Amino acid sequence: MAEVVKMPKMSDTMTEGVLAKWHKKVGDKVKSGDVLAEIETDKATMDFESYQDGVLLYIGIEEGAAAPVDSVIAILGKEGEDYKPLLDQAGSGAAAEPAKEAAPVADKAPAATPAPAAPKVDLSSIPATVIRMPLLSDTMTEGTIEKWNFKVGDKVKADDSLADVATDKATMEVVGYEAGTLLYIGVKEGEAAKVNGIIAIVGKEGTDITPLLQDDGAAPAAEAAPAAEVKTETADAAPAAEASSDDDSRVKASPLARKIAKDKGINLNDVKGSAEGGRIIKKDIEEYTPSAKPAAAEAAPAAAPSAAPAAKAPIVLPTFTGEEKFTERNVTQMRKAISRRLSESLFTAPHFYVTMSIDMDQAITARTRMNEIAPVKISFNDFVVKACAVALRQHPAINSAFMGDKIRTNEHVHIGVAVAVDEGLLVPVVKFADGKSLSHISVEVKEFAGKAKAKKLQPNEMEGSTFTISNLGMFGVDEFTAIINTPNACILAVSGIQAVPVVKNGAVVPGNIMKVTLSADHRVVDGATAAAFLQTLKQLLEEPVRLLI
């Protein structure tokens, strides 16, 4: 009998998996223990083995696609066996197959056939242009019409300012590029309109604009953008002054044309306007080609009286035009899990932080002596893991977890060690760390780090932590705080060892200081308890012989 194969739950935090690769195809024979596929979870990519014999009758998810836990990904059975009833029972887990059977059902029920739609009007043949609410800032979602400068029926020119719009940052003018009659106003003064919403229509007098209004929202934002130009209103008018050949403040120009000219370093006195009354618009600036100034303008400084002091030449900055660009990538399953878990932790558990400086002089000496005889190189991180494990035995409240209506105090010590990988962060767990030697801890942590970077960590190797350590000391970090790895009540952030002057026996001497910061869940741990734990940790690391007792 055919059997459904579902997306397995491969870790305690997994909600969906990505089918990285199929090792079998439809029609292949499968034995129990054969690797059916590779599945990418939120923590690693793992082989998925078949638990039954048979023929692969159906594949429900393509390579590279994601599927929620317990959804149908395949069906195994006897060759030629009808598996469709299993898909019907599974519901949406196999939407592709039911879709093929839906067509005949529709043929049997002609009464449900919808009435033919009315022929679509060719909007391009309508002699009118839609003016939409433009995106005037990167954070703008809507704009408020403060004032209409025209009313329905008025004639407007291509460079007329139609309305004043208040955004989330400033009040700006919306200038339409279309000449004609204002046929429609869609938003009253004082009302707001969403970005890309219709605010006006300009076109030939008497035009039926109903199809344009019915098609509201069909035009993409990219097509609406050229329909308007904007400018920020200045609070103070420019002071009246006699215009000179270099002063173009009195030249008649649209706000957008003036802005473009300023960006390009073009003097508006040199540009000939094509709009009514010689007004300069955007097109004139874009088509402008710099040329030599008239001879009279060049000769003017020479004709100045010799007694007049020479004016300082204005500083001209070179024009630099950069290119805005970016890349995007899909969020991986691991990054999704990190985002979800850490957000839940930070916004659910009330964090507080306690920082302490630890003198690492004796730890440095002890490590050097130990590595001369130890079978494996011991790191400062191994010292911290061992010291935390011993300190947790003395302060069980730190080794606790908040469980909703209960607080669980763990009598065993399982320490999670955060390991950075290319796609995020994994936390393998050193179990019963308080009973292991420094050499044992060193070997185990190194093995976990190698597995993590190769994506070979198993779920059971990342579960069950009662306390977590995040160490950025190898990056030279002075101090940082970490987000609690729930359901743990605490996490320790470990910084680098800094060579700094310290006071010992009343004298300033060179010292090696390491700062640690404990992030604690205030629902479980109080400040005094956290401070007491750090005091014990400090004593253990400043006198490493205590770790051997």
Automatic annotation (TrEMBL):
<dbReference type="Pfam" id="PF02817">
    <property type="entry name" value="E3_binding"/>
</dbReference>
<feature type="domain" description="Lipoyl-binding">
    <location>
        <begin position="2"/>
        <end position="77"/>
    </location>
</feature>
<keyword id="KW-0012">Acyltransferase</keyword>
<feature type="compositionally biased region" description="Low complexity">
    <location>
        <begin position="220"/>
        <end position="243"/>
    </location>
</feature>
<keyword id="KW-0808">Transferase</keyword>
<dbReference type="InterPro" id="IPR004167">
    <property type="entry name" value="PSBD"/>
</dbReference>
<dbReference type="InterPro" id="IPR000089">
    <property type="entry name" value="Biotin_lipoyl"/>
</dbReference>
<feature type="domain" description="Peripheral subunit-binding (PSBD)">
    <location>
        <begin position="252"/>
        <end position="289"/>
    </location>
</feature>
<dbReference type="InterPro" id="IPR001078">
    <property type="entry name" value="2-oxoacid_DH_actylTfrase"/>
</dbReference>
<dbReference type="InterPro" id="IPR023213">
    <property type="entry name" value="CAT-like_dom_sf"/>
</dbReference>
<keyword id="KW-0450">Lipoyl</keyword>
<dbReference type="InterPro" id="IPR011053">
    <property type="entry name" value="Single_hybrid_motif"/>
</dbReference>
<feature type="region of interest" description="Disordered">
    <location>
        <begin position="220"/>
        <end position="254"/>
    </location>
</feature>
<dbReference type="InterPro" id="IPR003016">
    <property type="entry name" value="2-oxoA_DH_lipoyl-BS"/>
</dbReference>
<comment type="similarity">
    <text>Belongs to the 2-oxoacid dehydrogenase family.</text>
</comment>
<dbReference type="Pfam" id="PF00198">
    <property type="entry name" value="2-oxoacid_dh"/>
</dbReference>
<dbReference type="Pfam" id="PF00364">
    <property type="entry name" value="Biotin_lipoyl"/>
</dbReference>
<protein>
    <recommendedName>
        <fullName>Dihydrolipoamide acetyltransferase component of pyruvate dehydrogenase complex</fullName>
        <ecNumber>2.3.1.-</ecNumber>
    </recommendedName>
</protein>
<dbReference type="InterPro" id="IPR045257">
    <property type="entry name" value="E2/Pdx1"/>
</dbReference>
<dbReference type="InterPro" id="IPR036625">
    <property type="entry name" value="E3-bd_dom_sf"/>
</dbReference>
<feature type="domain" description="Lipoyl-binding">
    <location>
        <begin position="128"/>
        <end position="203"/>
    </location>
</feature>
